[in-house]
Write a structure and sequence with these properties.
Helices cover about 40% and strands about 25% of the residues. It has about 100 residues and is α/β, with parallel strands linked by helices.
Length: about 100
């Protein structure tokens, strides 16, 4: 299951995990709903290798603002606490996993 990423816990998640993916989403976003099961699958498959989380942009405004999130869904990829890549839109699982594998 994907972690719940909030304004309050993002720094802790980035510090405690070498590789992190954060999915920025909202309840009203159709493409976000399409991507949600993919994110959950990846979170389960990579639970021992990376932290996969979801950040609701309606409930958490500081984090999306900090990273300039303008469109959702957006996936941010972190390694060693630093932002290294991003994907905008409802991407295919294979594309997301390929990017994740590069970081592991």
């Amino acid at each position: 299951m994907a972690l719940e990423i909030t304004d309050a816990n993002l720094e802790k998640v980035l510090t405690e995990n070498e590789v992190v993916i954060v999915d920025f989403w909202a309840e009203w976003c159709g493409p976000c709903k399409m991507l949600a099961p993919v994110v959950e699958e990846i979170a389960e498959e990579y639970k021992d290798k990376a932290a996969i989380g979801k950040c609701n942009v309606d409930d958490n405004t500081e984090t999306p603002s900090q990273f300039g999130i303008r469109n959702i869904p957006t996936l941010l990829f972190f390694k060693g606490g630093k932002l290294v890549d991003k994907m905008v839109g409802a991407n295919q699982k294979a594309k997301i996993v390929a990017k994740l594998e590069e970081l592991l």
